[in-house]
Design brief:
- It is found in: Cytoplasm.
- It is an enzyme of class 2 (transferase).
- GO terms for molecular function: 3-oxoacyl-[acyl-carrier-protein] synthase activity.
- It comes from Pricia antarctica.
- This is 3-oxoacyl-[acyl-carrier-protein] synthase 1.
- The protein is α/β, with parallel strands linked by helices.
- It has two domains: 254 residues, Peroxisomal Thiolase, Chain A, domain 1, CATH 3.40.47; 158 residues, Peroxisomal Thiolase, Chain A, domain 1.
- Helices cover 34% and strands 19% of the residues.
- Strands 1, 2, 5, 6, 7, 8, 9, 10, 11, 14 and 15 form an eleven-stranded mixed sheet that branches. It has a two-stranded antiparallel sheet with strand order 3-4. Strands 12-13 form a two-stranded antiparallel sheet.
- A hairpin with a 2-residue loop joins strand 1 and strand 2.
- Helix 9 packs across helix 15.
- The longest helix is centred in the first third of the chain and has 16 residues.
- It is globular and about 65 Å long.
Length: 424
């Protein structure tokens, strides 16, 4: 019999809040983390706004030793270590002692690109024939598994320590991978999450594709408009989210706090066939992913009362709503409550799924559904499918019972995870 899997720790480093308390308050109050970035103006970007965590040296110094900080400029690693360490501490788990790893605990922490600024620095030195000045941390800051390696050493985890990378689907996919390892009895605990670097070298490609909003540089908080008729593209973001997954037996044995239960989920790809492409999801695959997630979780479509969508503030938002409606066979007033958090901190790329999963789970803790910002002008095609009351503009008092969270990424890859309010 498969182990039941619960969430016992949360950590977050987001554009609108660093740490659970600040982030939770920002989500409940609708505080935005999207700001004007002067560097993007200097570089003549069309979109000169972004969601970027505001970190101080004092905060960073609490998580790294002076040796670890030497030459460290991979922002994704910094965000991930903050979120991952906070989640571990929130779960009340100790670090392994100096001699023996914690054989029962592992890490699966994903990323899209990592150490882009470090790559740039290294390329400059190499081109100027100064290879010897690269330093000893260049490799670990630029390898994809650098973030899991940092966290693995800090926490002393001796089970599987690895990374995953599936574009915008990375964080949600990683939760399911960690869930499966625990459910199969191969680990008692898995720290899962994802991170994304920040800065112009990460965001430039999207600006060149002209899929970012260009008319909100003087009004950044209104720029990200998921499900809106005036949505003009996604606002780039960065940061990290982290969750401690644990077997129910282990959590109860040590008296750990339980935020929610992970019932299951599904991962698939549309193969870039049909209406799917490198940048757009295949609708049939999206619907199959949701249907399979429901089936794997042992629930009925009607059990889902809340959805946190991918919903990036592009022309595809209405299609995503249609896919949810078809997959769940629900519409109008029978449609679940649905929200998108990208209106508050933008699209955090590889970190999107994990940050949004942290926010989704916090709704169980707070007995609330966080509001959708910048959607006063609901897209008419969405209004045809969903009753407006199911898309709250502000946070409402409501106790979610079963929540579906999905991410759909570049490369036509999909993931859907089902969370449940924990009942022993």
């Amino acid at each position: 019999m498969a182990e039941r899997v619960v969430i016992t720790g949360l950590g977050v480093c987001a554009p609108n809040g660093i740490g659970l308390d600040a982030f939770g308050e920002a989500m409940a109050s609708g505080k935005s983390g999207i700001r004007f970035i002067s560097e993007l103006k200097q570089l003549e970007f069309g979109c000169q706004i972004a969601g970027e965590p505001l970190l101080t040296d004092n905060r960073i110094n609490r998580y790294f030793t002076p040796l670890q900080l030497r030459g460290l400029n991979a922002t994704g690693i910094i965000y991930g270590v903050l979120a991952g360490t906070d989640a571990w501490n929130d779960a009340g788990l100790p670090k392994a002692d100096a001699e023996t790893p914690d054989w029962d605990s592992g890490i699966l922490f994903g990323t899209g690109t990592l150490g882009v600024a470090k790559f740039r620095e290294a390329i400059h030195l190499i081109d100027n024939k100064e290879v010897r000045r690269l330093g000893s941390t260049t490799v670990i800051q630029t390898m994809a598994s650098g973030i899991s390696a940092y966290l693995g050493g800090i926490l002393g985890c001796g089970n599987q320590v690895t990374t995953n990378s599936s574009a915008c689907t990375t964080g949600t996919e990683g939760i399911l991978m960690g869930y499966e390892r625990i459910a199969s009895g191969k680990a008692k605990r898995m720290l899962v999450g994802s991170c994304s670097d920040s800065g112009p070298y990460v965001w430039a490609g999207f600006d060149a594709m002209r899929i970012l909003p260009r008319n909100y540089n003087e009004n950044p908080e209104n720029a990200s408009r998921p499900m809106s008729a005036t949505a003009a593209g996604f606002v780039p973001g960065s940061g990290a989210g982290a969750l401690v997954l644990e077997s129910l037996e282990s959590a109860q044995e040590r008296g750990g706090k339980i935020y929610a239960e992970v019932l299951g989920g599904a991962v698939n790809s549309g193969g870039q066939r049909g209406n799917g492409s490198m940048t757009a999801p295949n609708s049939e695959a999206v619907q199959r992913c949701i249907i399979e997630a429901v089936r794997n979780s042992g629930i009925k479509n009607s059990d889902i009362d809340t959805i946190n969508g991918h919903l990036t503030a592009t022309a595809k938002d209405a299609l995503e709503i249609e896919n949810w409606s078809r997959a769940l066979d629900r519409s109008g007033p029978n449609f679940p409550y649905i929200n998108s958090f990208k209106g508050l901190f933008g699209h955090c790329l590889a970190a999107a799924g994990s940050i949004e999963c942290v926010a989704s789970v916090l709704q169980f803790e707070k007995n609330q559904i966080f509001g959708n910002v910048n959607v006063e002008d609901l897209h008419p095609e969405i209004e045809e499918q969903v009753d407006r009351i199911k898309i709250p503009l502000k946070t409402i008092d409501y106790t979610p019972k079963i929540l579906a969270k999905a991410s759909f990424g570049f490369g036509d890859v999909n993931a859907c995870v089902i969370f449940k309010r924990f009942i022993d």
